Structures
1.
Amino acid sequence: MSSSEYLRVSDLHAFYAESHILHGMDFTVRRGECVSLLGRNGAGRTTTLRALMGLTGRRTGSIMINGREVINMPPHRIAQLGVGYCPEERGIYSGLSCEENLMLPPRVSSGGVCIEEIYEMFPNLKERRHSQGTRLSGGEQQMLAMARILRTGARLLLLDEISEGLAPVIVQKLAEIITELKKRDYTILLVEQNFRFAAPLADRMCIVEHGEVVAEIAQHELAEKQPLLQEFLGV
Amino acid sequence: MNKSFSLLDKQTLSYLIGIILLLAAPTVMYPVLVMKVLCFALFACAFNLLLGYTGLLSFGHAAFLGSGAYLTGYALKVWGVPTLLGLLLGTAGAALLGFIVGSLAIRRQGIYFTMTTLALAQMMFFVFIQSSFTGGEDGLQDVPRGTLFGLDLSNDGNLYYLVVTIFCSAFWLIQRIIHSPFGQILKAIRENEPRTISLGYDVTRYKLLAFVLSAAIAGLAGATKTLVFAFATLTDAHWHASGEVVLMTLVGGVGTIFGPVVGATVIVALQNLLADKVGSLVTVIMGAIFVLCVLAFRRGIVGESIALYRRMIGEKL
Amino acid sequence: MSELFGIPLPALYGQLVLGLVNGSFYAMLSLGLAVIFGMLNIINFAHGALYMIGAMFAWMGLEYLGIGYWWMLVLAPVSIGIVGIIIERLLLQWLYKLDHLYGLLMTFGLALMLEGLFRDLYGVAGQPYPIPEGLTGMINLGFMMLPKYRAWVILASLVVCLITWYMIEKTRLGAYLRAATENPRLTQAFGINVPLMVMLTYGFGVGLAGLAGVLAAPATQVGPLMGSNLIIVVFAVVVIGGMGSILGTVVTGLSLGLIEGLAKVFWPEVSSTVVFIIMAIVLMIRPSGLFGRQQ
């Protein structure tokens, strides 16, 4: 495994009880890269992220994060390796205030974004910090979900459908944040339905169908591989 | 030869065998012991109707066993009513109590339902302790068994056939309930209550009816027990009795037809065996059986046997 | 006026204090139950038995090892907490994936085992436990005589409940607990060792029960049956209060103790069932409990 590989997934199968969802996912993400998993609903993209975090049922195959095999690790150990997970449902706790939500995930490394800077990046969260977590708007909750994993010092970010259901202004803000994170050398795995959001941000796109990667497109190949995108995604 | 076998399908055959065994049993075992087993088997079958088929865990069924026992005992001893009427009164009283308790408990779901049934049963227990009609700590003693169609029931042999008849009739009734459209809806409630609601069924009414039926049959079991032992005591209404019937059903197999009967037989036999030998440790052993069943034997004797049988024929095919 | 409805006031106050003492136990026990239920989704039927064992440990400590009350006040809850952790690891952890009724059945079986064991060893009669020095005697409040030990029990319980509330609502660990209660899988994904928290929560919950047992020892007879009747009343308390808030649970427990005390004075026949009657009323008017969240 080359030293610039941060995440390597080989022949990953994942199950929810008896349901076989991932049929041998294979892909890698290099340090500082932003890779997007695209595909239709039900293709297995969210399941891939969950499998990486250890949140699914049985898994087989290999997941290497920064050189460590994590296929058999429990979720809290994986997180402690520096993986930050932003779930599709955002997962804001109703029993905690906005600030408590933000401060909840423990630091997993020393390189986290400090709280002052978080509030600079996300001024809304500072305003609403004493509100109950679930009273925040959809966009604010999404910001909160991202902010709290940035605070921990996680370097590998798993982001699931962060633009879903949000107003264009907020989606734009999210794109700016991801661009900034890329500059700061974060490694990002982006699951997205919204092709127009993902395409400018992703260095590479992996198209997922039936729990497998069926095509890979680098950003500079977008124009020439247009027919592939049409075939698999209808764009 | 083929004709006679087509008349007797597997289920009818097993019922016939069961009845023959029951009728023959007094020749090899003490009738009183078998009657005790039958009473508890009926109690467990009543309980199973609620847990195995409707999915409601009641931890207060002793209230119904006890009220059936006390009401029948009082009716027979103090009012001097005929035996069958006494049994009927006990059953009806338990049904009424079941209606009241059920109406309150069904307002909550899941674990709260269970705790409510336990608490209400405990309340009944305290009512029984304090009432004069129950005889308090002493209980109702010397309840006369009366006669039936000229047969003197104080003869254990005679009473035995009455008890067998009661048991078989009630058992048959439970089977009819389970296999009726009503029973299908109960199963639907157990499996997926929200879906059943969305199909337009008034789930509360069905649950309540199931609860009342279960309470009534439990009351009948208590009433019959009073006949057998000629007394009714606080033990019948104590929460240990509630726990016992859960254990019997669990050990035998929740949601199976014969599970409660098997479970009751095993537990009563075990208690009989251990009675004078281990004293208070009986409770420890019962508790240990609970723990082991929950950990490793959830389907109970009948359930595991069915699963084993299915695996075996599955492999052969 | 030195009487209320024919009851002399000092007697009334005495019963109210006794009611508060019982209410303190209701509060502590229902608090432990609620914390365990929130995290594990299991109703711990063994709570009563572990409360009894707390009291028995206190008695055994004094009887066999000469260890006094103040030491046992720390040792007993800690030992029971360790017992709880063993129970969780050995027995309960296999049940989380199953219907939560199995948790009730398991802890019920456990309660039978624990009670049966102590009943076999010590019979059903209770043993007296002496009130520790320094807490014997009365405080003269003017309008009544207040037994020092009862004042101590009420105070200690309130402090413990308050500390528990503070820990859960105001500390980082408490935030972890609340998060793990709400969404255990996601909380793990943040690096929090949720299985460890579950284990410690059960240990803490039963430790509270054990502590209540030690507090109860000088106040009542210490016997193997002291837990089982109490636990059913605590269940009723929990149904009445709902398990939605800590303060709600504590207030409910204390109030019901008070009401029970009042009943003993004015209407003794009803006193053993008044909690259940209130439960029936609450179920009719507000099924989710006084402080519960709508389910």
Note: Residues 278 and 285 of chain B are 10 Å apart (CA to CA).
2.
Amino acid sequence: MADLAIRPQDIDAELNPPLVTGGLTYASITEKISAITESKTPRAWYIAIGVTGALTAVLGLMIAYLVFTGIGVWGNNSPVGWAWDITNFVFWIGIGHAGTLISAILFLFRQRWRTSINRAAEAMTLFAVACAGIFPLIHVGRPWRAYWLFPIPNTDLNMWQNFRSPLLWDVFAVSTYATVSALFWYVGLIPDLATLRDRARNKIRQWIFGILSLGWRGSAHHWKHYEMAYLILAGLSTPLVLSVHTIVSFDFAVSVIPGWHTTIFPPYFVAGAIFSGFAMVITLMVIARQTLHLEDLITMKHLENMCKVILATGSIVGYAYAVEFFTAFFSGNPYERFTFINRAVGPYAWAVWTMFTCNVFAPQLFWFKKIRTSIPAMFAISIVVNIGMWFERFVIIVTSLHRDYLPASWGYFRPTAIDVLTFAGSIGLFLTLFLLFARFLPIIAVSEVKSVLHAQESGH
Amino acid sequence: MNAIFPKSADRVFRFAVAGLVVTAGAAAGLYAYFSHPKVLDTGYTPVQPVAYSHKLHAGNLGMDCRYCHFTVEKSAFAAIPPTEVCMNCHVRVKPQSPQLQRVRDSYARGEPIPWVKVHRLPDYVYFNHQAHVSAGVSCVSCHGRVDQMIEVKQVEPLSMAWCLDCHRNPAPKLRPVELVTKLDWQPDRDPADIGREIMRTKQIHPPLTCSGCHR
Amino acid sequence: MRTGKTYWRSLDELARTPEFEQWLHREFPENASEWTGKASRRNLLKLMAASFGLAGLVACRRPVERILPAAKGVEEYVPGNPMYYATAFSLGAAAYGLHVEAHDGRPTKIEGNPQHPASRGAAGSFAQASILGLYDPDRAKWVRKDGRRSSWEEFEKFAAGRFAGQGAGLRFLSGEIGSPSLEAVKKHALQRFPQARWVEFEPVSQDEPMAGAQLAFGQPVRAHYHFEKADVILALDCDFLGLDAPTLSYTREFARRRKIGTPQDRMNRLYVAEANYSLTGAAADHRLRLRASEVAALLAELAAELKVFGETLRVLPAASGARRKWLAAVARDLAAHKGRCLVLAGPRQPAVVHAWVHLINQLLGNAGATVTYTAATWTPQTQALKELASEMAAGQVSTLVILGGNPVYNAPADLDFASHIKKVECVIRHGLEEDETAALAHWTLPEAHYLETWGDARAWDGTCSIQQPLVAPIYEGRSAAEVVALLSGYPHRRAYDIVRNFWSALSEPQWRKALHDGVTPTPPSAELKVTADARRIQGLPLPPPATGVEINFQPDAGVWDGRFANNGWLQEAPDPMTKLTWDNAALLSPATARSLGVNTGDMISIQREGRELKIPAMILPGHADNSITLPLGYGRTRCGRVGRGVGHNVYPLRTSGAMSIAAGGKVSKAPGRYKFSLTQDHHSMEGRPIVREATLEEYRKHPHFAHEPHQELFSLYPEHSYDKGNQWGMVVDLNACIGCNACLLACQAENNIPIVGKKEVARGREMHWIRLDRYFSGPEEDPEVVYQPMACQQCENAPCENVCPVAATAHSPEGLNEMAYNRCIGTRYCANNCPYKVRRFNFLEWHKDIDQLQRMQFNPDVTVRMRGVMEKCNYCVQRIQEAKIKAKAEGRRPIRDGEILTACQQTCPAEAIVFGNINDPNSKVSQLRKQDRNYAVLAELNVKPRTTYLAKVRNPNPELV
């Protein structure tokens, strides 16, 4: 009889597969993660950072050239005053959304599966925001005056910023977001830094991690404060996830330009941001998982969940596209209508259809479990989505600007080599930072994963 | 486990952080102070090619500013006088003085004297003497008591904020036009009252808009 | 579109060519190789020097600045206050009176002289831009002997020996002389050298009209048209609003007859028959596309319709249906307006045509009414030059003195001037440039710019002006009169003495008055009564329509005959019709292009009389079929850095036999593509109510046709009230605007607007604050054209102001949308959010590498913008402020209406632009805003533009609609 009995934990295992596999124990998890930062630096890492570092150098050169020569080195013109510069800005800001979402919102919703990916996702967020932050500063004609964007008291001019300008709202939104996510990330790191400190074999590591871990001793007292701080920060960043891209979308929604001036932008931008963010997380995690052999910690369940999120947000984005076209038609506004017809068949139709294919059609493949659970497939799709989301921003910005109200003022935008290299450089910077992170800091939140492990076992 | 840091580490750390904040704040404050036009620009007293004393001419001798700066009422610029103007008197007054050698040479050769500009505004600022003088703004408001300066020096910051102070509230700085060059003029009653009267009678509304000064 | 016309987008799209499809789906093209402009941007930055200005918005701390007052005071001169002088600018034989503004002794801005009959306060694009020539760093600066620097003393020594005898083998070659004093010196020279001869030659000459007058009246006469009196005008290949002098006064008179305040007002009606699409054609109520060589036939048909010779006329092959109908209507219209109509033919038309026109005008009773004649002396220029060339070929010319002009470049190709000139023992060249001709001269003498020497000039109507210098010659330049005086031992040597002596009849007060007014008391030429000989004219053989492809040579709106090639402003000013900058092109009709299998940008080869020319083609809708227009003046080989090698030289195809209209051209597609730089590449209005247009009849039926019903929007922000003090506004009458570039160039000169060069124009970075938007409507083959000057509209709810993060653009209480350059950090957000796209961004440092000389042109009242800042029209705020300060100084009086003129308004020959205080119900601008034609572009956006437009009304013949 007994052998016929079905044990509840089997069902449980069926319904939600374990988040940590391979029979890892507390000790072995710690060992596994910490080892990554302690073991001898692999050759592949040097090669990788060599490449990305070179790209970062290119970014530096391009910025220098830009500052010393002028915006003219880019393809921007009249009427297309913004092009790749702001496209890249919005693209990176979008990427920077998944991290906080995973850490904060999923944390508040008690989504346990977040634990193995939140650390890396948060790091990615920081690096993306760092890349994003560059563009608003260098896209101005006189970067040496960019500090005028900040409300610094100035008793010699008595000049204040124009608080009606969405661009100024951006300044606040982005800087707040950067600060909070940095804090959130660092607080999360503290216990693991302490672990590394304690495992450290040489003085230097001891000192560095010693200082970084701010004297963490893991006492109940510490944990109590820690949990509280973490909860508060999660609470703080949750609205930010929504606010940042909402405000970025105001840059366009508040204008009078057909194709920009639309109320759907805030939700549309946020969905798009999460969409692209998760895509980037998958891209990075898949690589990390394979190269660092984290199969037991970043399980198929994690990846599959993320694919589901992409499928959901991708569908929202597709819906938004459709609604945009519908409202343009339904508004009866000839300018709006023309803008969208022009998107579909105009000089930039190729970009628009790239966008549709990558963002709307590609993610739909995730309806199939086979694809959802196939590493190569999800990797490919995540890349495609990243491309698509870059094009979404390009389409919104450039196709709306190049043909607006007076046909006599219409033009066409062509990027220059500098445009391309600058964007490539920003990718380089992003990857460089991530590689450094993956090498020197615990890429997975050890303490949190342990909590999951604990939960799993208590399930017995 | 063995402690890496001594007990005191916590305190050191806290002090370090505090110190960092303080120094950063101090640095910012110092920069703000020393880069301010009040500090940076006022007091500028260049050496002039000819040791010309405004104190002597405008002060002791009581010459009117407009004797030399004769375009101040009809032009945006208060012209630096041609050497001719100096010579009007100095053919008779101190014709031999060695200090005036340069002036005499200039006049004889027809070569200008390279005076050094003291009150300098950026190229994108269009200040108009005619407009201010005809409204009743005295020389002293911007140039100070030149009649007491042996060497002319900049006494006001000439910063945008400084301009705006007066443009927002001109009354205290206004006086009857005929008195604009009376640098030592002391109003018998509250200058603001006089100013308000002048503003009423002349309908003076100083521009607060960009193009008032930037074109 | 109100008028229910169908608008198309661009030719390519209309024609759905595969190229367009491919363009639709093209990937990012590799950019660097996108534009094969001759000069790179960096070069151009250097080259454009001639119009760059004081850089430097950022001031570093305390550079020691010196003030250098004059040692001795200058009379009447108040440092900082501009001074104005009257002088005159001549183009060929037509002079225009000018007022030139000088700041601290340097000429900075040119305006028309209101007292001068030919300019009436307006200045055309050539006059406006001519000030650049004064500061052109590539001017001829020194006397040169065989290319080596020499001196006037050297030359005088040489001349004393050379110019001793009777002048055997001595020849003078000059442009057309419009200067009385120079004529006097010329007469003296010819007396001094009896055996010498003097040839006058202009590449764009009056030969044909004069010959026509000779045929009609037996003597050369100059015709003067009085458009104010003409109700019906038929212009045959005559661009009297554009290039056929004297355009300014004609434009003024014509425009006055187009301005209508109420539906009841009457306006004139203009018929145009032409090959190329000219400004006059754009202004026409009815335009007939016609090969230039068929105008004669058309005229004969018209004569038949008008029964000019009774029934006995040997009628030519009757016109085809449509053309017949057109002609019949025109004829009836003309006949119905005897004495109040006008027929004119352009100077490019052959003599016979002019003879017929004179006759027809006479029979229509126009002679003496709408057209008057004055006596003229004339020697056919092309013929004279031909003889000179043959003399040179025969070695009979020992000394050739070339005054101005550039014959080596622009003489008819068949004269082979360049090789014959080598046979001349001694060539002396006096000119502004070291050009193609100078290269072949033994002596080159620098000519003084008209702003730096004394002279005089006769206007089209005979009015004389004294050409008064504003500066002493910057280099060693001397006037032509001085040179001839020197060579011929004229009693007076200095320019001033020559002129003053010529006008010795004027007493000192009269002379001073003449200088002040800019016109001498001498009356214009007396009217001449002449009668055309009908019989003789009837007997004249009509030139047959051109065989093969007809080729039309005509002066270019930018560089004229090539003399302005080194003028950056004119090079960058878009051609009024094609919007082409930095180039010329072979203009042809869509049908012709199809038959040749070429598209815009394809190279074509034109062969004629064994000569070949390769030039890129450009499709111009409305151009006559089987005909090609070639603008002169490009492809200069020896010229300043700005103009060298720009465009294609078409003179090699132009022969003395066919100076204007050439027959028998063979045209074929040639290998290769060419990139044009256009400022507008989209030609349709997309059915949007941007330019609102109606016929006079429609207007009378619906006086409010211009008013678009649209839903009222409300601003989120509290609305400002603009009901106090001065509230500046502008009204542009689209009925008057003819689309010439005068306003654009005036604005460029007034506001220190930089030149960006061909490559940057191609990128869409031209800096002009005012655009002349040109839209086609109707069928591709034969569209109508409308113009719309588009500058900052000074919106009351300005979208640009809200979005600027640093408040660099803000609104003034007087309703100006102001731009504080020094606050701008260059986010370009304002430009993106401008529905009119009138903001201009300094993408690069356009003001690099310029020396003191070039800086001298700049208007000190306007900040010169550095790279990275936004700029735009501000209603010439510097002029507004100056006027306000002046008014305050003069006892705080209110500003009078018309006291402030914006640069564009002041120079507009059509008086299409009116600026003023809309708060004053009596101001001209308020009056116009009350008109029912008044409308605001994009009013539906609730941006409340301060610039409004008066809708266009055409006056078509009811018979033809």
Note: Chain C has five domains: 7-27+690-958, 95-134, 144-205+379-504, 207-375, 549-678.
